[in-house]
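Dear colleagues,

As part of the handover before I leave the project, I'm documenting each prediction I ran so the next person doesn't have to rerun anything. This entry is a single chain, and its sequence is reproduced below.
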Amino acid sequence: MQKNWTNTVPTTFDRDAALRMNEIAMTVFAPIYPVIAQNALTVTNICQGVCLDLGSGSAMLAMAVARKAPQMRVIAFDFSPHSMQIAMDNIDAARLKDRVRCETGDVHALPFADGSINLIVSRGSMFFWDDLENTFREIYRVLAPEGATYIGGGFGSADMREQVIAEMLKRDPAWDCYARKKTGEDDLRRFESLFQRIGCTTHQIINDATGFWIVLSKS
C-alpha cells in the first residue's frame, strides 16, 4: 500500500505548528473527541486496562477516553516532542496525570511489550504513516488477547463532520481535509489483504457517518 494513501500533504511539526494544532483541537475540534471516544468504547466493548492513543498530538482524544473510561489507563504517544510537551500541559490542567501519561516515539517501532495494550485508538494519524503494513504489524503485536483497535479518521457523527469542516473552511478555504477524500473499493481490498498478511483474522472496516475506522480484534 502506498505512502500517505489519501495523498494527504505531510505536516511539519515544529513548535509553532504544534501550538496551532493544539489551538484548533481545543476549539473547533473540541466537541468531536468525547464522541469518538465513546464510539471507540462502544464498538470495541473495552473500557478497562491500558489504552494507547497513536499520533495523539495534544492528547485530546487520550483525555476523552480517560474521562469516558475511568478504569482505563491511557498512553498518549506521538513522534513530536513539541506536541508531547503541550499534551503534558493539557493533561496537567485537566487533572488527569494519574491516568494519562505521554511517550514520544515512532509508530513503525512501538516501544511496548507484546500483548501489553488492551485498546489502541488513533484519529487522523494513520493517513501520515509511511509504512502502513509495518505499523499495523506492530499494532497487532502489542495488542493484548481480547484487545481491539479503533484507528482511522472522522468526526464521530455526520453533524459533527459538517460543523467542523464548515468552520475550518471559514478559517482557511484551502484547508486540506482527508475527510473529503473518498475511500474506494480498491482501498478496502488492499486493507483486507494487509490484515491477512499480518495474521489478523478478525477485523472490521467502518466507513460511515462516524468516519473511516479500522477495528482489529485479537481473539
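The CA atoms of residues 48 and 72 lie 4 Å apart. The two ends are 26 Å apart (CA to CA).

All the best with the project,
I.
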